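name: query_chain
kind: protein
chains: 1
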Amino acid sequence: MRMSIIIILCCVRIVGFSQSRLYSKEFSVLTDNDVFFFRDYYYTAGQDLAYKKLVDSTSHLFKTLAKSDTSKILLTYKFGIKLFTPRGISQTEVSQMDRPYAGYDYLSIGIKRFDLVDRGFSFSMDLGLVGESSRLGQVQSWWHKILKLRAPKGWAWQIRDEVVFNFNYRYWKSWRLKTKFDIVSTSSINAGTASNKLSQDLTFRVLNFKTLKESNFSGSFLSKNSRKSGEIFFFGGIGFDYVVSNIFIEGSLFRNDKSPFVVDALPIIFRQHIGLIYSTPKWTYSSTITHLSKEVAGGIDHIYGSLDIGFRF
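structure:
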């Protein structure tokens, strides 16, 4: 009997310790795909592998970047791929394509800083490769063969090889209207040789969400608080992009021989998004549905889904 009590007390102690552990690092996998809605065109697939860490307040980096001792700073490292195709992937004639094929591999490093609970910003730099050397045309063809899907037949007309650099700045600001309802403004600027655009979104969150400084909505769930609770909430909203240039549609900004086939990108794109985020101290599960207005003249709108799973340690 005494031994049983000791074992039970040890288990309680272990559980209590695991619940109060400080998780300062996170690994996540994000998958974008339109196959969830039985589609296979435009932005047809994407995959991100990300590693994130909370910058220690005693570090030189924190003291250099922080605005105050209560600031929160996170570093993110990411590897990703993106695939773009025209609507009719079975077509081999350029005259039947409404946008080019494009494959994109990239590495990214970024930093986020939150000085107040209701606002923060991020800055990231991407180094990527567009074109045949990305090997994503071969990857898609192989994957479609494995799944017995329609074979994409127009990769010979893809955007030409180019090494690209891109920068992104994003700013979040929230207004809590009720205990379980708020509105978040997300403003961003993309600049570089891959994408140049201005973006603005308004998103509502409803149910049990945390402040932007502590929420997975802004990718900032990692915390100095060892007894942090989880969150679960629905979100949805609208947004738009003002597009200056897009290498995945228009080809290179600097080369005269841009690509075998390019078209002009429409300057304004509208978005709607809706989703759910559920987080425990150790895990995050997120799903989003995104609807885009047409990106090229003669094109149509598009919808794709995103699934994101994060593990903290």
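note: The longest strand covers residues 162-178.
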